[in-house]
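Re: beginner question about structure tokens

> Can someone show what the tokenized structure looks like for a real chain? I only ever see the sequence side.

Sure, here's an example I had lying around. Input first:
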Amino acid sequence: MGKTAENEGAPLMEELLSASYDYRGLKQGEILEGKVVQVSPNEILIDVSLKSEGVVSPYELETMGPEAIEQIKVGDKVWAYVVTPEDEKGNIILSLSRAELERSWQAASKLFAEETVFEEVVAGYNKGGLIVNLGKVRGFVPASQLTSIHRGDPLAALVGKKLRLKIIDLDRQRNRLILSERAATRQQRERLLAELREGDVRRGRVTNLCDFGAFVDLGGADGLIHLSELSWKQVAHPSEVLQVDDEVDVYVLGVDREKGRIALSLKRLQPEPWESANERYSLGQLVEGTITKLTRFGAFAKLEDGIEGLIHISELSKEPIQRPNEVVREGDVLTLRIIRMDSARRRLCLSLKRVEEVKGDVQ
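And the corresponding structure tokens:
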């Protein structure tokens, strides 16, 4: 049988019905991705892949102003919020700003539901805390939820700085978004303490220096590099090696999960001087050393960073003496002879009185 006029028109009718269904299926509040096809001071048209283009709300154009409109270019891909699926003229009325706001709330809701810790820049402050914007949503960090500032310090000092935060309360209807640095720090610390292992190497930032060492933020928890673990050389204060805000790689010496303590080392990632000492020193060799410390039984002399030896009081002078300071002072630079060497046990014995002896006479 041949095709009837009714049969021939069926496919066309199906296409029209499908297009009409897609068009009428739009709902207020939907977020659509589209492409800008026309921009003028009075009209912005957006192709949203439906039977007609969407029109940005005239009211929104008024509030945007000329400068904001000029920043939108033909061909830009944008997200648009459906204000009205179809007005009296058959137009789809869209809003760009409400789409940004809606997407910002959706992103915040996801962060809240997943208890995600994130970083964001402080935009402002008031007497009660800090203002932090998550996209187009304004969040608030109460002063009681801050750890980056001490009581009495000005909140203004944190404006422009990036904080690690977590959402602790979200109420879309009340336009309420509460953030906490304290909760983020606690969660990050718990996670870090659980996953850290002795022998790990981590990147961190120096947050504080004190007389006994340096504190390093490993991304949510601070670890301590004790003064003795900063360098193979003797260090009187951490500032000789590090400065606050330095980025450093550190070696994890140990983790005390019960007490929440992390012990770190900087020197364990540096060559250990004794490992190659046999390549540079030998029994009977004359070396230059600096007196670093006097004791009742002798004096210590540094040959290089990490390599020190003892000059016993009996090896300081050919004449009997009662105290090392009768012969040497701290800071003296002397020529010494190596009379005993045990690299495995990191022990080195030196002599001042045997400097004039020939190498073969050393026992």
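Each token stands for a local structural state, so reading them left to right follows the chain. DSSP finds five helices and 20 strands in the chain.
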